[in-house]
Fold this protein.
Amino acid sequence: MPDIIHRVGIKAKPQAIYDAITRQDGLSNWWTRNTKADTKVGGTIQFRFGSGGPDVKIIELHPNEKVQWEVTAGMQEWIGTKMTFVLTPDSTNNQQTYVSFKHSDWKNASDHMTQCSTKWAVFLLSLKSYLETGKGQPYPEDIQISVG
Amino acid sequence: MPDIIHRVGIKAKPQAIYDAITRQDGLSNWWTRNTKADTKVGGTIQFRFGSGGPDVKIIELHPNEKVQWEVTAGMQEWIGTKMTFVLTPDSTNNQQTYVSFKHSDWKNASDHMTQCSTKWAVFLLSLKSYLETGKGQPYPEDIQISVG
């Protein structure tokens, strides 16, 4: 089954990126403004895009290195899928940290899932922009990849 | 083996998108300015990004529906991989056409391949921008997703 996979290099320290993917204020600056986070392992983060959006349970937190969530509520197609972020300092450029991202455990490679792949790139570039410039493009300011 | 998969909705007719992914002038407006295309099935398209870049052989051309290339020269990791574009009019919005994109047949899910996934999103959004506004962001005007 295909996974959604991405990798970006961000001019920021691992700790700054870790904060942006684990803290409510960080997450709300690049994925969706409407984020409510219980930030411990086993806690739930609610992401809302208009009226809907996923709840994720925090499965793993390895400070400055790795974060994993599992979707527990929201669109049927998302439930049970996992998002994993792995942070790796660039060994050749100490200003840059790589973020490897995977959204896995999809039941089908549907059109929706394929479109999510492109949309995740948009949001990971929003994360990069937030960390490098102070300004991301979280929902509802996100770049549109289609009508509807 | 994971594939790179994307899907964008473009406010354009299938024929306009087909032209943009099959003609030299179209391709040079969203992927790289330095494109030389022999545009028939079996022909080679040379894409250059600075001094390097892939040569692809045109495997399939189904007007306004599907295009497939196979990489024949360039980075070792790309050789033998295939890029496939499938165009589908949006049945609910006759101004929009979906482009489903796959870059398949990778030997390994390497960091390079994962980073290519994100970069393909950038170029497919460049294709969308080119068709909707007349202006894409082909190399060397492309959005950077990392340093180096």
